[in-house]
Amino acid sequence: MNTTTHNLRVDGSRLWSTIMETAAFGATPAGGLNRLTLSAEDGRVRDWFRDACEAAGLEVGVDALGTQFALRKGRDTSRAPVACGSHLDTQPTGGRFDGILGTLAGLEVMRALNDAGIETEAPLLLVNWTNEEGSRFAPAMMASAAYAGEFTAEDILSRRDAAGISVAEALDAIGYRGDEPVGTRRIGRFVELHIEQGPILEAENTTIGVVEGGQGIAWFDGTITGFESHAGTTPMPRRRDALLGLAEIALGAEAIARAYWPSAVATVGEAVIGAPSRNVVPGQVRFTLDLRDPKSETLDAAEAALRERIAEIAARRNLAVELTRIWRKEPVPFDPAIVASVQGAAEALGLSHRRMVSGAGHDACNLAARVPTAMIFVPCRDGVSHNESESATQGDCTAGANVLLHTLLALANAPA
Ligand code: HGY
Ligand code: MN
Ligand code: MN
Predict the structure, then answer these.
(1) Closest ligand 1 atom to the C-alpha of 132?
(2) Can you tell me the distance from the alpha carbon of 152 to that of 158, in angstroms, rounded to the nearest whole number?
(3) Rounded to the nearest whole angstrom, what is the distance from the C-alpha of residue 42 to the centroid of ligand 2?
(4) For residue 415, cis peptide bond before it (omega within 30 degrees of 0)
């Protein structure tokens, strides 16, 4: 940290009021957020974000998948920008901090540098990535994956939600289908601040997570076909009940994850009975499965064990079960030099910190495939996230934003 910026800090109360102000877009009665990607509420927070960035003197561009890039010029325009940011879309029962903290802390960093009249060597860039959550359109971290070259923009634009609306149509509906080709925006480094979304930092009374990587993720779509029949006249042994098949599969997924405890996790997050009726034995069920582990080989073993268990359940219950893996994100290590920068900033600020791996997926996990990347975590209450009660403290958010500020300064002012 050089002398002129050594004592520089963000304005924590301005950051906090920014988080609370934007929580009005998609606010739920329970105090959380329902701001699905490319919804009208997402459109409104994007407009707010664009205006706030422009008011801070940033130059805002939008790419073909709606990702917003806000550039703060540096002295040396030949250098690739050092980027930060996260996402502003939420889960249907989301909280006020997931993604939002990292995006608005990036705005606060720009405002703090403006207030102090500081110009960096390399430019800085603040990013709001489209559809990090993956709830409305699969996969998660969709736009940053396309930026990293994992999908073409055309493929992503054609993805459809449960109502059959395509990404392209949803982007046009809120006016965020930009003209910048995906993947062309220069980024030299990427640092993402995020709440941990887990219990470790709070349990250890530690303020900063120095994140070394992200765990692997596998997403599946499943269909179970049995036979609709009368709820009153079909004897139990003669039923081909698709819902009971799903019940056994879900319990099987839980048992397999527990067998790889404490690393593996498995979740059946969606289940839909086809043509539901209270007096018909369910004949068809569609479901999703989310499987994660820090090790690729454990993901493979857990998937194989699950497929074996499904085959046994299907044979015993005379069901047809299809399980299709629709997305696989390998475990990703972050760049050791950027991780060290984060740790250096936490140490210089005198903040308690520890190294850790992210259980959640993040846009940083995609950026890491293209540019040196790392993450900063701060605690959230009871480790809860993807829940309307998600909460963090102003002090921890401010501490995380200060680590982001000084990590960005170190990277942007380092010799080219
Ligand atoms: O699924 C995830 O880990 C992220 O919250 N989208
Ligand atoms: Mn997130
Ligand atoms: Mn999330």
Answers:
(1) 6
(2) 10
(3) 15
(4) no
Q: Are 356 and 198 in contact (CB under 8 A)?
A: no
Pocket of ligand 1, beta carbon within 6 A: 132-134, 140, 360-361
Say which DSSP state 94 is in: B
pLDDT digits (tens, 9 = 90+) for 252-271: 999 999 999 889 999 999 99
Query: Which DSSP category does 92 fall into?
Result: T
Residue ranges and CATH numbers for the domains of the chain are 12-214+331-412 (3.40.630.10), 216-329 (3.30.70.360)
Query: What pLDDT, in 10s, does the model give residues 87-117?
Result: 999 999 999 999 999 999 999 999 999 999 9
Give the model's pLDDT for residue 416: 83
Give tens-digit pLDDT for 149-200. Answer: 999 999 999 999 999 999 999 999 999 999 999 999 999 999 999 999 999 9
Nearest CA to ligand 1 atom 6: 133
- Residue owning the nearest CA to atom 4 of ligand 1: 361
Ligand 3 mean position to 6 CA, how many Å? 33
- 121 alpha carbon to ligand 1 midpoint, in Å? 34
- Residues with Cβ within 8 Å of 318's Cβ and at least 6 positions away in sequence, in order, are 226, 240
* Helix%, strand%, coil% for the chain, nearest 5: 40, 25, 40
What's the 91 CA to ligand 1 centre distance in angstroms? 9
d(CA 8, CA 112): 8
pLDDT for the residue numbered 3: 55
Query: Hey, what are 371's tokens?
Result: 């540019």
Q: Which of 91, 386, 387, 390 is the best mutation target for the ligand 1 pocket, counting ligand atoms within 8 Å of the beta carbon and taking the most?
A: 386
Instruction: Give the DSSP per-residue string, 343-399.
Output: HHHHHHTT--EEEEEESS--HHHHHTTTS-EEEEEE--GGG--SSTT----HHHHHH
Cα 264 to middle of ligand 2, angstroms: 19
* Confidence (pLDDT) at 1: 47
* pLDDT tens readout for residues 230-254: 999 999 999 999 999 999 999 999 9
Confidence (pLDDT) at 4: 74
